[in-house]
Amino acid sequence: MDRRIARGVQAPLVNGLLLAAAAFTLFPLLWMVSVSLMSPGEASSYPPPLVPQRATLGNYRELFGRAGIGRYLVNSVFLAVTVTAVSLVFNVAAGYAFAKLRFAGRDRIFKLLLGALVIPAQVAMVPLFLLLKQLGLVNSYGGIIVPAMAGIFGIFLVRQYALSIPDELLEAARIDGASEFRIFGSIVVPALKPIIVTLAVFTLLGTWNDFMWPLIVLTDKDLYTLPVALASLSREHVQDNELMMAGSVLTTLPVLLMFLALQRYYMQGLLAGSVKG
Amino acid sequence: MRFDRAAWWFVAPALLVIAVFFFFPILAALLISLTDFDIYALADLSNLRFVGLGNYLKLLETPQFWQALGNTLYFVVAGVPLSIGASLGAALLLHSRLARFKPFFRTALFAPVVTTLVAVAVIWRYMFNTRYGLLNYALGGIGIDPIDWLGDPHWAMPAIILFAVWKNFGYNMIIFLAGLQSIPEELYEAARIDGASIWRQLRSITLPMLSPVVWLVGILTIAGYFQLFAEPYVMTQGGPLQSTVSVLYFMYEEGFKWWNLGSASAVAFVLFLLIFAVTALQLRGRKWTAA
Known about the structure:
heterodimer, A: about 280 residues, mainly alpha, MetI-like fold, 2 domains, about 70% helix, B: about 290 residues, 13 helices
């Protein structure tokens, strides 16, 4: 068979299929934005309208006004930022120590942590709830932040990256009389910057998108994160499609934009995290 | 051997958090699953009794638990191959030398992964709407009668699977793409010189070279799909007729709606053992085929 003819058929086929796949993934997201700009009731018609007859921000006004979504937005931002900031400190310090410092039982502890990665977090949820209840953290921001202060995945990610820091660099600093904390601050953290950004993006997205644990531990409406509030709104407003789409836009757009801006770091983390097998 | 005394200052805080808020609760879950911890014990611990394997035995006699288990297996058995197939197909297309605008397509296909599950579940619930949903409109265009996607016990799980594939396939696609890029180009050159067709190259080079990655992705995806929860919570609330109650959904209701915390812990442990057993089986199967 003539290769050029084969190519002439294949190139449109490959690109056509990619286009179809992209339409499949993007259409629901674009339509979400479109429906969120429709007037109430407009989306409940047949055939389903693709674009609003007259675009309106009414649904967003309603969400911020009566549904008080601004409060949930603030909660979500606060929790995502706090969890990320705190857990970065804990995980980066520990990940570095597992890679470069020597202490009794280091390798055994690390193996234990790695093994525990297969345990689904939900197994711990009932006792964790009781424990936090004892500590008075149920139904407070602390219930989200405290258990998330350190994580095995984050430690693992940092450790793998920190292995590549040359020992000579650290030794030289030690000979110069720098303390371990000084070395950490002025040599290690700058060297780990790419993985720190990666882990930050992962933690921000993970905390923002998390649903089951906030649903369990936050019972007071004022403390809800966006996903929990959205799930509860969607049970009340089953028919208000336009309003719900506006809520979905507000919930998902921030993380989508952040991902677009920091895509490179995210993909690196994804690949580093999946080759652990 | 030299020990760094300062090391503990670096690891201790993180280890303490993980020990107190992860390892301890897991051990406690095992103990609680052997008790009748319920709303009375929640109010006063003196109401707590040790019941041995009672919770586990009771679960075996609970039809809803078996149904939740069956639904979850359905989701895993149908959803994982579809997901991985979609990931592999998309990765092969993106890797093709004929593909254009690769960065755009890569981002577009990956986008659903980073969206908030609850938010996109709300979108899909609307698209699955029997009367106004876009899906039925599209199907109507090719002469198929409207399907009551989320209201018909036969269709609710397939609808959730379709949604899950849309949401998740981009993740594994990126891993496959990296795997494809690491296959040496010379192998293909040699095959082309020998006159091997595209299909032949796929079967004899690409898939065998990619098989370790497929295996790993399979293990991780199965473990993830066993943890189905938010999709039915938002889209169907477990219905219709319990057809989308997953094991975790069952655990959530048992524990945090009815406050049967002992029984909920038993459910969580059964799920864990199930995931563990399936993973172990896969790892053994891998060794077996590699030998």
